[in-house]
């Protein structure tokens, strides 16, 4: 075996030790006649694929953070245990990507030093386990959380141009070890195959911007107005959800609409609550342990008023922002109780904020009486009816007749030959494309999309022209004065040409220099 070229013998020995898990000195290496076999090349290719696989999963993990609070709530319903699973996801993903990346760097360095790629069996086993874990994660995502595939597609509108630059840069750097391998191997067929694959990949990458589309590739003067903010259950990162404190915090964030969920107590009092059970957001297990599993509507208003609706927020910390609350906010949060709809309407009227709500549970036998009780409270509250946005589909025609001033919001897209045109729609952000948003905007249909927490997603929807977004992170989106990035088409084309030309010259230099 030739002496290490381009690096000292001790460095080569250390690299071999880490990659092969054997302390092989240069002399022993010569004596053993170690060479990179076809099997070793196959394992290197497998390592490279695993690195790409984990890298793609890391991208997905970052994207789904926007919706991970929903997953935390789902797991609480299943396990009755609150845990921020996003932290575990990121830690596990970071470990897998770091491990595969370190092995890949070691392999590339060994190749540059003309050393054999003898991957140890322990690394091989761990790489196979890594592949199985990531494959299981993708499978679980596809089965239980399929809408996140659409989230990933939307994310490419925000990250596509930058992913292109990053991938071109990474593949350009790969030219150095590839050129070293090609000049040192005697297998002509393998040389031709690797060169063809590499050239095909690079040509595809150079032309990739032709297929990249984003609403943020536009001129500054064509940028639509900033979407209005709708507080998802108020400001749940700053206060216990669906409480008066949460409403007031939402008002401080310049939120225009307070989005909430209404239920009706056993004695006919509409109140704010999202879950069918009270266990997640109150201390019902301590006050009424025998009845904790009952539906929220099984409790009368006197019983509901005995429950603490704020301490859980401080104990479970559903969002990292809870840790930074002031002492005054912590005390106020601990004093929160379940508010009635009447109290919330009064607060909304004083704050001049609209209220949009669902009426739950939709499959209840007494749902019509729930609608009647809710309508009665709204009409008696004195709030201007245009400040009330009605989401429930059940008995909608009755609501239109009794309170025609209430704004009707539909949780569906418009239909062909619709008798009565829709004026407001409320949909998951995955359900509308940028083209549909633009079309609805041209037709003067107000589009609200939920739940939007990450600035990258808010930026894409802003550039698309959405009317408003429902968010948990009103304090973050409030501070955004501009989308994260906005590129005129001419500037984007210029960047594309510069990146591709620079990459081509670097690759050419690598092959000429190492010849």
From TrEMBL:
The chain crosses the membrane at residues 41-65, 85-113, 125-143, 163-183, 192-212, 493-514. The keyword Glycoprotein applies. It is a multi-pass membrane protein. One of its GO terms (cellular component) is plasma membrane. It comes from Pandion haliaetus. Residues 227-481 form the GP-PDE domain. It comes from the Eukaryota. GO terms for biological process: lipid metabolic process. GO terms for molecular function: glycerophosphodiester phosphodiesterase activity. PROSITE patterns: GP_PDE. Pfam families: GDPD. Keywords: Glycoprotein, Hydrolase, Membrane, Transmembrane, Transmembrane helix. It is found in: Membrane. Belongs to the glycerophosphoryl diester phosphodiesterase family. This is GDPD2 inositolphosphodiesterase.
């Amino acid at each position: 075996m030739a002496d290490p070229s381009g690096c000292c013998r001790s460095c080569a020995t250390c690299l071999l030790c880490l990659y092969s898990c054997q302390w092989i000195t240069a002399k022993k290496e010569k004596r053993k006649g170690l060479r990179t076999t076809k099997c070793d090349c196959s394992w290197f290719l497998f390592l490279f694929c695993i690195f790409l696989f984990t890298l793609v999963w890391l991208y997905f993990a970052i994207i789904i953070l926007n919706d991970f609070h929903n997953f935390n709530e789902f797991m609480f319903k299943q396990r009755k245990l609150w845990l921020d699973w996003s932290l575990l996801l990121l830690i596990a993903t970071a470990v897998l990507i770091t491990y595969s990346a370190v092995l890949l760097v070691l392999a590339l360095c060994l190749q540059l030093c003309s050393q054999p790629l003898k991957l140890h069996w322990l690394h091989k086993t761990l790489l196979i386990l890594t592949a199985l874990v990531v494959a299981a994660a993708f499978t679980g995502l596809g089965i239980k959380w399929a809408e996140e595939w659409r989230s990933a597609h939307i994310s490419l509108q925000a990250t596509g141009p930058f992913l292109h630059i990053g991938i071109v840069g990474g593949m350009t750097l790969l030219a150095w070890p590839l050129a070293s391998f090609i000049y040192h191997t005697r297998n002509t067929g393998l040389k031709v195959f690797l060169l063809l694959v590499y050239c095909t990949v690079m040509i595809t990458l150079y032309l990739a911007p032709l297929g990249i589309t984003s609403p943020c590739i536009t001129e500054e003067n064509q940028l639509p107005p900033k979407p209005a903010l709708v507080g998802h259950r108020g400001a749940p990162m700053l206060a216990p959800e669906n409480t008066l404190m949460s409403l007031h915090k939402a008002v401080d964030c310049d939120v225009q609409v307070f989005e909430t969920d209404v239920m009706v107590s056993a004695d006919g009092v509409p109140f704010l609550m999202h879950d069918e059970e009270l266990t997640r957001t109150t201390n019902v297990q301590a006050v009424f342990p025998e009845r904790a599993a009952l539906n929220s509507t099984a409790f009368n208003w006197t019983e509901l008023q005995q429950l603490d609706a704020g301490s859980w927020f401080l104990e479970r910390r559903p969002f990292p922002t809870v840790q930074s609350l002031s002492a005054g906010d912590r005390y106020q949060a601990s004093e929160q109780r379940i508010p009635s709809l009447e109290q919330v309407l009064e607060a909304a009227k004083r704050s001049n904020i609209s209220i949009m709500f669902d009426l739950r549970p939709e499959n209840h036998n007494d749902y019509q009486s729930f609608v009647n009780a809710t309508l009665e409270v709204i009409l008696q509250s004195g709030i201007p009816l245009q400040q009330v946005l009605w989401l429930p589909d059940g008995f909608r025609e009755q609501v239109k007749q009794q309170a025609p001033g209430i704004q009707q919001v539909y949780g569906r897209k418009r239909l062909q030959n619709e008798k009565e045109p829709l004026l407001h729609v409320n949909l998951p952000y995955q359900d509308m494309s940028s083209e549909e948003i633009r079309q609805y905007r041209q037709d003067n249909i107000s589009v609200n999309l939920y739940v939007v927490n990450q600035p990258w997603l808010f930026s894409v929807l802003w550039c698309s022209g959405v009317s408003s977004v429902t968010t948990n992170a009103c304090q973050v989106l409030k501070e955004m004065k501009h989308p994260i990035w906005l590129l005129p088409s001419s500037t984007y084309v210029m960047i594309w040409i510069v990146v591709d030309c620079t990459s081509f010259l670097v690759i050419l230099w690598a092959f000429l220099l190492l010849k």
